[in-house]
Structure to design on (1520 residues):
């Protein structure tokens, strides 16, 4: 019999769905010691919480996260509520001895993140942040190829995360599904929401970033705020681009925007090494582009790897070669890996400390954009 | 409260997994009157049946499908066992008044399929065949565009399903996972396994086929049979290609093989109409290629539609624009549509009669390949 | 000093331009013993001939090809006039001892082609047919890879040539630029015009074709004839598809049409061998797709070769890596290779005999389409 | 009769070939009042100059550019010699009243460029710089779409020019074909060689740049110098990336390197506007990617425009739809446009003044990279 891993979920939005789906599916596809049990979902609005519980099979609901954190029948607190709630909930959960899975970004800023790290490390509770894109099989394969030394010395890293959903001036800020436009709730705009993903992957694949020079822009300066009903100044960054040096001597460009017409969630990265290069694209996430200079010259070229073979990361758990998985599976992989880690008593990654490093890069980026200077990154 | 739809599954292979996953997920994403209940899985080997039941949450097991069919607590028989068992099980299930979902191809051949159709129609039980590719959102969108008259008169249809997994001469025929190479179990090779998919989609999108001229080939003439342990003649078609005329006057080419090095499950189709053309590819199933001659000349070109928007078929049930779903979701869609159909008292498609038409095309193809002549298709 | 190769060109249409451009450019890029000299262009309309001569630098004009053929100051007759004139001119040129470059297809049909072959072989004059696509660097590289044995046993060959320029019913048949729609001038429709290209390449890459089963269609049955001014029955095939067996045991599908909306000149082919596969596409002619099963499994995939490196066929003569050449360069390569062949006293290919084989395949295709039976190909 | 335009070419390297080819071809494809005449080529080494003259049909040679500039039988001086010679030759040519076509970049730096501009404007001689990529038909089409207002307010511009040919440490600096690595001859590395192309296109498509923040890197610090025979410090920038604000409020990222393994000449740009986006790629230069948000939602997507139709820029002069041209044709277009401009008495673009603006951006980029600060761009 599998051991139960009793989940208490805070928040029921987009991420509440992706996580719940992962908990429900993981044991059908992975052989694990633990089985997630959907014990409770928590939201301020009881009716909405109940509807979500019915949809997903949660056994109970709570309307106050403090109660959820105190429940004895909960092993793990999963934080899917907006960014400005992460720290308070995570700290309480750590003090209650719960395992913690926290949505990204970890915190509103670096200092807040440092407190969170201190608390989980003091409490010695397993902790992880949902930077799910590490677990796209193609991205995991990129990591494997890098770890095998296939690329050699790295010269360049470039990443972009392009969207186009906030171009309309009529879009309000704040409210359901729109809190990402409210700086008081989100902390920042594309930097914390999208570039944080790019940075997490980059740190994982290419090591620490030394310094950055950034620019940000808010294209639509004022929007109606859903809660106040008034037109208010927009505080978030609509777009952000930055130059960076990695510790390994490579140069990087990063860019994110919600004003790139034609792109919905175009997260791409490319790494150029002395011997090989790798490129990936979230819009075709089941492919990895690979160029190996060690191939014979006459037939050397970029390969489009269709990441569906059983020897590709995670893929033996799914279907048969040629048949692709999608976005939601990254969360299943993350749950599977988390369960493996607690089974073995090892750390899962990215943990809070890993994600604090990402937060510190974001802080340096926002600071550089504000003062127009290169900024060093504080290391976690 | 949702009404239960109690499933009895026969077979636990690849398709047993895809169907079980669909039953488990469908209510998390679709609002439906019924909720599938995993009541029982049936397989001759009790231990394997139990392992599958544990993995997927089936409440019980059976080792004789006849018992399953007779159980009062089962509403629907889902047939995932090899092709040569479909008819017998389906006929018994129909006589027992069960709803029936049958894996494709419907039957070993047309005459057998006719009997099956007669029985389910006599029993008036809801019935459907798992030609899942109709429910890839991009393929469903193709159907919508055709039904809107966007293509105009159709000139050409071409489809291929290319694989490469049987090139090795060392691969045996028969046995677990390999019954598709045993003509006595599978009925035919690529014709029934792969071209049947192409034909089902084609009939749905482009109407009936009038006549065909085909060729087949068995590249590896003898293989060890897993069950007998002896080298035996291979009876299946390793590859098959055929020309066809549709009733609407369009010309078609169809091809399938398991000897196309580099392709795992490359099901592609393209339709050329007077005003527009459409192309699709299973290896990038979340995209649809569309060329509209009515577009302004200067910027006319093939569009790569990224089928992840909420107005694309089925997609509002999943994530957000830009985030792709995969192969398994087609089965979820099929279950959702089936439940909708029984809720409304309408037929679900493709039903047994629709699939008999596909079977008849396969029969004509195999006959033409044998006698080297154009063959007319018998209509269901 | 280079030796002069004095050209007499018959015809001044599209092909007259491509050939003239090739003659003018070849010595700038290739070191050759001969230099083409644009001695005379011949056309019935003196004014048009003179305009063409002025545009391209021909030293003189003729209005009767018989006079051109008899001129002592001409070494080579280049036949670019419509298909129904090829035989008569070629035979006269052979008898006059001229070298002959003839546009494709060689002849109106196989028997006519046989006579042409007999005459040039009797006269022992160097001869070649302008199947220019052999000299696309990517296609030549495909040939090299095949000759190296990289593909192993060949299982499949498939080729298509898709266009969309005759969909409009208002397009007349016959007249300037439209003789390809007049069966009396062209001999056939897409079979001789487009499939002939596919067949020439296929025979070169994959050996002889044994037998074929074909279908043709004329979608627009009547068109106004430019010359008569009357609506007349259309005699050409608008579309043609056929199945074939090659002598090497591989199966093939070929298709061509001028009714594939969205495709201008989409000549594609793909070859699947036991160890590797190759695919190519005229719309991106500077790329070759290559899949090598011998590559390491984890990073095995289709490579998109950018055929611009100096070790790729012909490319050292052009620019630098990354910079692509186009359609016209295939003709330059053909002239360069022809000059090399006469310098060495070797045959250039495809010569008239090679192209008679292509003609015979076309004849078998048209015959099969007419009688609905498999037809054997007569070998040249 | 066409008027002669007598060319005196300085330099015989890669660019000498592209220009000569353009002069020879232009009248075959364009109807123009002038016909370029290859009057003289100038190089210090008489034997090499003569070999080049023989290859391309130049009527005479010179070994001292001063003599060339003074010749009465020369109308136009074309400067293809290394960057550090541009200014002196151009100024002398201007004073001699010659028309001037100068290879890019205009000059070693902005101040030198200012002098050149002053001289040609004082002399009132037609002048142009060979930023040939403006005349790729797809790029010209991008300009037309922007000028039609199809994109609306511009939010983002991003450009890259990636190569990989200097990764080897064994490559020397200086000498034939390698002067681009010698800072004293080239002025800078990728900034002047590659980013200058990106900047020229960007200024043309998107207006002036206000300020920049840049970083550069020299990955290989020392290389043997071909001329001295000694290992010397490398003075050029191997890679350069910069952030920029355009005057129109859009944000930009630019990057260039010769260390991007797998890319030979991957010049790409993308522009995101409120209503539409455009992307282009030199490796497939005959295509333009276009996304128009005004398209119907259900079939909205990125279009891959195959720029071979007769209504696409320049294409009516070439072949037929579907047949692509290549890199060399951009130079033919530039000569054709230049001749049109002198025929009409209008300015050709980019002229020296346009190119000085590009030079000033390069200067600001290099300065910013050196001092780590945002730098304003001086306007020409």
């Amino acid at each position: 019999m599998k051991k139960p891993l009793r989940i208490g979920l805070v928040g029921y939005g987009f991420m509440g769905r992706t996580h719940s789906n992962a908990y429900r599916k993981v044991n059908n596809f992975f052989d694990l010691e633990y089985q997630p049990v959907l014990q409770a979902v928590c939201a301020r609005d009881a009716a909405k919480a109940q509807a979500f519980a019915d949809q997903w099979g949660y056994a109970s609901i709570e309307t106050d996260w403090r109660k959820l954190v105190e429940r004895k029948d909960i092993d793990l607190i999963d934080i899917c509520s907006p960014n400005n709630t992460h720290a308070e909930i995570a700290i309480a959960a750590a003090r209650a001895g719960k395992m913690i899975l926290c949505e990204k970004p970890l915190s509103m800023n670096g200092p807040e993140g440092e407190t969170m790290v201190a608390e989980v490390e003091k409490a010695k509770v397993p902790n992880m942040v949902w930077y799910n894109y590490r677990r796209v099989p193609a991205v995991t394969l990129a990591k494997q190829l890098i770890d095998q030394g296939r690329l050699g010395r790295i010269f360049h890293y470039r990443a972009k995360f392009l969207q186009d959903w906030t171009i309309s001036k009529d879009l309000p800020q704040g409210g359901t599904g729109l809190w990402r436009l409210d700086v008081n709730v989100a902390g920042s705009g594309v930097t914390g929401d999208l570039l944080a993903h790019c940075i997490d992957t980059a740190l994982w694949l290419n090591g620490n970033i030394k310094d950055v020079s950034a620019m940000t822009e808010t294209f639509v300066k004022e929007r109606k705020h859903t809660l106040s009903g008034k037109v208010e100044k927009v505080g978030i960054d609509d777009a952000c681009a930055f130059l960076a040096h990695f510790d390994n001597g490579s140069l990087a460009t990063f860019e994110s925007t919600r004003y790139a017409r034609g792109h919905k969630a175009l997260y791409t990265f490319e790494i150029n090494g002395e011997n090989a290069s790798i490129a990936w694209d979230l819009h075709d996430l089941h492919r990895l582009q690979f160029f190996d200079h060690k191939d014979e010259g006459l037939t050397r070229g970029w390969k489009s790897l269709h990441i569906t073979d059983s020897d590709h990361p995670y893929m033996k758990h799914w279907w048969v070669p040629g048949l692709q998985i999608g976005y939601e599976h990254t969360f299943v992989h993350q749950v599977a890996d988390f369960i493996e880690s607690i089974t073995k008593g090892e750390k899962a990654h990215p943990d809070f400390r890993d994600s604090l490093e990402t937060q510190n890069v974001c802080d340096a980026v926002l600071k550089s954009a504000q003062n127009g200077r290169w900024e060093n990154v504080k290391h976690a």
